[in-house]
């Protein structure tokens, strides 16, 4: 009788261990599925900005690969750039001060130049487009335009403050995009930008309000 009870206890314990191991394996598989959004963002220059932006993207939250996260970051950067550029152009129609107008115009031109490299990113980005985006972002990171410099002569106003904040958000998301592209392609941080990307860097022209 005691032997039978001992055997029953042993079998029950063994079954419990098997169930626990099975559940652990299942949970581990589920946790490892897909791309690690927070872990990937932690490897970027601006983790909080990265997480905040990508969590708003349903495709990013369901991302299966690091490449998916990179594409989502490019979309987020494009949206931020569009918001900054639209704001600058809209305010140009209202400002009276020439210094503020020039500040808005120069920032808008640079932002629009960047968007020309990013903004056709609806849907999946093919390898050629991803390479072009990386080359441009590499160059931008090494020689970023400086709205602070462009706006130095402009009066400190709510418009200037808002523009610089929007531009800074755009720059941060471009930096995040570059980091995630490199992470998805295995490219090193020391990769040099190509001549085509370098040539695309906009040059400021001194302009005044017409």
From TrEMBL:
Residues 186-210 are annotated as: Disordered. Residues 1-30 form the signal peptide. Transmembrane segments: none annotated. Residues 190-199 have a biased composition (Low complexity). Pfam families: PMEI. Residues 32-180 form the Pectinesterase inhibitor domain. SMART domains: PMEI. It comes from the Eukaryota. The keyword DNA-binding does not apply. One of its GO terms (molecular function) is enzyme inhibitor activity. Keywords: Signal. Residues 201-210 have a biased composition (Basic residues). PANTHER family: OS03G0830600 PROTEIN, PECTINESTERASE INHIBITOR-LIKE. This is Pectinesterase inhibitor domain-containing protein. It comes from Panicum virgatum.
